[in-house]
Amino acid sequence: MDNLYDDDFYAWTQQQADLLRRLPVTSNQLDAELLAEEIEDLGRSEVRSAQSLCEHIIEHLLKLEYSRLTEPVGHWEHEIVGWRIQLEKTLTPTIVAKLDLPQRYRDALRLLRRQEPPMSEIIGRAPRECPYTFDQIAGTGDEDWFPEPR
Question: For 63-93, what is each residue's pLDDT tens digit?
Fold first, then answer.
């Protein structure tokens, strides 16, 4: 059981919440249902964190590829690397399965849409579907990948 906690925190939270709900009611002082909800929420928080990091990474990958700007490129790459490091610490197999990359891409486009030109103009140049693989977003491997400007 300790390995699941270390290997996949989200899966552990879901398992523990389920086990709490199955406990026989022996005392009215233990609020097993509320404890189960709080434990589940800890796991959901990890998922939301990973999803948010992916959205910001995708947003900045789009800026690198489609903004046609050169000045803030180093800053964007630095932010992407920082978010990838955070994402790596958060990811577990269960969280990866819950990322929903098409939705993360739609949310990244939404973030861009709310920005001032020229960033909002990226929307017209960006593909309809996410052009990046999970490995490209997460930056798996020894070197960080960045798209070439278009």
Answer: 999 999 988 999 999 999 999 999 999 999 9
Report the number of distinct structural domains present in the chain.
1
Angstrom distance (rounded) from CA 115 to CA 126: 15
Is 134 contained in some domain? yes
**57 is in which domain, residue-wise?**
2-138
pLDDT tens figures, 47-58: 999 999 999 999
pTM attached to this predicted model: 0.90
Tokens of 148: 């070439």
| CA distances for 32 relative to 27, 35, 46, 138, angstroms | 10, 5, 22, 37
Query: Long-range contacts made by residues 69-77, C-beta under 8 angstroms, separation at least 24?
Result: 69/118, 70/149, 77/144, 77/146
